[in-house]
Amino acid sequence: MTRMRITDGRPGSTPLPDLDMSTSLAGAELPSPVLTASGCAAAGRELDQFFDVTEIGAVVTKSIMLRPRAGRPTPRMAETPSGMLNSIGLQGPGIDAFLERDLAWLRRRGARAVVSIAGGTVDEYTKLAQRLRHVDGVTAVEVNISCPNVEDRGQVFACDRNAAATVVAAVRRATAPGVPVLAKLSPDVTDIVSIAESVVDAGADGLSMINTLLGMVVDTDTMRPALAGVTGGLSGPAIRPVAVRAVWQVHAALPEVPILGMGGIRTGLDALEFVLAGASAVSVGTVVFHDPAAPLRVAHELQRALGERGFGRFADAVGYAHRPLPPVAEPAAPDHQEAPVEEEA
After folding, report:
1. pTM here?
2. Please, are residues 113 and 265 in contact by the beta-carbon 8 Å criterion?
3. Pairing state of beta strands 140-144 and 113-117?
4. Closest CA to 199 of 166, 173, 174, 176
5. Which entry of 4, 141, 147, 239 is annotated as an active-site residue?
6. How far is CA 122 from the centre of its chain?
7. 163 near 153, Cβ under 8 Å?
8. What pLDDT does 7 receive?
9. Is 40 a known active-site residue?
10. How remote is the C-alpha of 214 from its chain's centroid?
11. Distance from C-alpha of 173 to C-alpha of 154, rounded to nearest angstrom
């Protein structure tokens, strides 16, 4: 049991409530339910100067591909109301450099690592999983089949249940036994429950929900698309209601499947929404661009919010909003009849 009795760092703050904040994410035992989100902090090294990355549940790495990738042309970021668009295009150093530099650093640092992988073909995903199979320090593998900011929309495997299942099945076969495989789903589908069911049937141990939404901004001064790649992935608070809805629907259909929830989480109460809807853990992403210590802050705020609501364990809050409503009491029958009103003659 992991019990955290620490303050949240605010001047004059009281100790956090004494409750068990540990969680199990598809078999991965984590001391905290708050993780980083893929793509927002590389492999965690940048954030470690602002807070101890070993104190959160895990660092979810930026999606890594088989070979180095330059990404999409600039400009590739644009602010939107309550969010931002990114069109990075899975830029990265490739698996060899990642293993030598980033995963090695996380292992030395003592941080738990959820390694996100992405590919253009099933074979690329398979080779990535095989490379990770033979290294230490991998807490889980997140299969990014849903990135919207790539040039080839055909790479968005998560938009087709058969394609999504094929990728996940290949990764599950190639991944070391005992290392959970999480399928990262896209909200840009008609029926996300159907996609979730297909990847779980294919061997996914859990789900990451949701990836960014496909969006676009037109610059009204230049009267051209603001992003060089035209479209990008929308993240930030604007997408939180969509993400909470998706988590709710999938948890209702597949209550035994662990969910790593994400999408616009800025505060502990935002995180609590996901947990009550059915998430076993949450990832904090876009907010770190202006508050690099946000993952640990959100963890503390979530702990405080749970204590204020009477929870003794984090696990007891997972899916709590799905509990049956109490029966509505029938109105009591009158214990006497009213005397009839006599009509005037």
Report:
1. 0.90
2. no
3. parallel
4. 166
5. 147
6. 23
7. no
8. 46
9. no
10. 17
11. 23
Q: What is the spatial distance between Cα 219 and Cα 235, in angstroms, rounded to a whole number? A: 19
Dist CA 94 CA 200 (whole Å): 28
Query: Could you tell me which residues are beta bridge partners of residue 120?
Result: none
Task: Please provide the size of the chain in residues.
Answer: 345
Cis previous bond, 210, omega within 30: yes
Phi, psi dihedrals of residue 64, rounded to the nearest 5°: -105, 145
Identify which of 316, 319, 180 has the alpha carbon closest to the alpha carbon of residue 249.
Answer: 319
Supply angle C-alpha 285, 291, 296, rounded to 5.
70
User: pLDDT tens, 224-260?
Assistant: 999 999 999 999 999 999 999 999 999 999 999 999 9
List C-alpha distances in Å: 332 to 329, 335, 339. 9, 9, 19
